Recover the amino acids of this structure.
């Protein structure tokens, strides 16, 4: 019996020594091939980048790009700083089309010929990236219970110098004989240019129109004035529905409310729909991997976040074309 116990003890001891030896060999192997071990652990790890990405331009596009920048820094590249500002489309192009300018310019209109010439002058290669669809939205005070539905012609007459409208009763005799307070974004913004060039057909605005740099100022002014009316992108209305109401527009087939399912280039709200963009400095994208990586991230995720910030998505075929172009820039 004692002999059996002794033999059992010797077997257990031998197994322990063998296990320890195997453990030591394993550690030695890890030390000998540390890169192989790391490689196995990081096969699915995204390349870590660092540096900055600088974006300016459209106040309309700002909420969408700011949301994407936040998501990118939190979940993609924590060592890359993405700075998003909103000087306005035109003011942004002035910062973009200079030596050592911004990496991107968000725009609520397409680049103009003179701006493209400025890019050529400085040797800046520019790529237009269509990112979403926006609906020009007219907003009024919550207490305005008479002008919640209008035709495009009636809306235009409020803002056009020779529209013959100064009071609500000039549009409809049943409406109050009170002076209308028209407002909108100033000339720095692509939304102003879209409205002036496409909606007003370059006709003069009324002399008393109150043009502002900040959309938040317009929101506050209309929310505090029963006779106020302003225009800006649908996203700003969505984010301020508690303070404002949108005007439904009758284009001839019944009143259409601006909404994600009506804003489309061939949809019910098409006459007031426009594409919005971001413009990429290709030179910088080629020189700075974080700039190209961010551009690619934006296009891969643009439709995911468009609706969240008040924009209608663009067709996937257009998204894929942009992604294919950006992939072609990679070394």
């Amino acid at each position: 019996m004692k002999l059996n116990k002794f033999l059992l003890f010797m077997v257990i001891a031998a197994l322990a020594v063998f296990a320890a030896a195997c453990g030591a060999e394993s550690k030695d192997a890890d030390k000998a091939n540390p890169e192989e071990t790391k490689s196995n652990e990081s096969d699915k790890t995204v390349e870590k980048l660092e540096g900055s990405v600088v974006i300016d331009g459209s106040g309309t596009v700002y909420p969408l790009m700011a949301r994407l920048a936040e998501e990118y820094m939190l979940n993609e590249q924590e060592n890359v700083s993405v700075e998003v500002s909103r000087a306005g489309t035109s003011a942004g192009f002035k910062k973009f089309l200079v030596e050592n300018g911004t990496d991107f310019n968000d725009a609520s209109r397409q680049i103009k010929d003179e701006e493209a010439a400025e890019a050529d002058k400085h040797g800046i290669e520019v790529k237009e990236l269509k990112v979403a669809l926006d609906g020009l939205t007219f907003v009024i005070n919550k207490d305005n219970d008479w002008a919640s539905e209008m035709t495009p012609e009636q809306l235009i007459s409020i803002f056009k110098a020779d529209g013959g409208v100064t009071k609500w009763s000039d549009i409809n005799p049943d409406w109050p004989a009170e002076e209308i307070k028209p407002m909108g974004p100033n000339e720095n913004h692509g939304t102003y240019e879209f409205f002036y060039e496409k909606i007003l057909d370059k006709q003069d605005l009324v002399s008393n129109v109150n043009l502002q740099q900040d959309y938040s100022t317009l929101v506050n002014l209309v929310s505090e004035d029963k006779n106020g009316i302003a225009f800006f992108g649908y996203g700003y209305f969505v984010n301020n529905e508690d303070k404002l109401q949108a005007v439904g527009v009758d284009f001839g087939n019944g009143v259409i409310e601006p909404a994600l399912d009506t804003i489309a280039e061939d949809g019910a709200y098409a006459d007031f729909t426009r594409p919005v963009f971001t413009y990429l400095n290709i030179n910088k994208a080629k020189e700075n991997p974080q700039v190209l990586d961010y551009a690619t991230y934006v296009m891969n995720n643009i439709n995911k976040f468009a609706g969240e910030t008040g924009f209608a998505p663009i067709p996937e075929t257009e998204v894929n074309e942009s992604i294919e172009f950006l992939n072609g820039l990679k070394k």
About this structure: Confidence is low (pLDDT under 50) at residues 1-32, 34-44. Residues 134-273 form a domain with the D-Maltodextrin-Binding Protein; domain 2 fold (CATH 3.40.190.10). Residues 2-32 form the longest helix (31 residues).
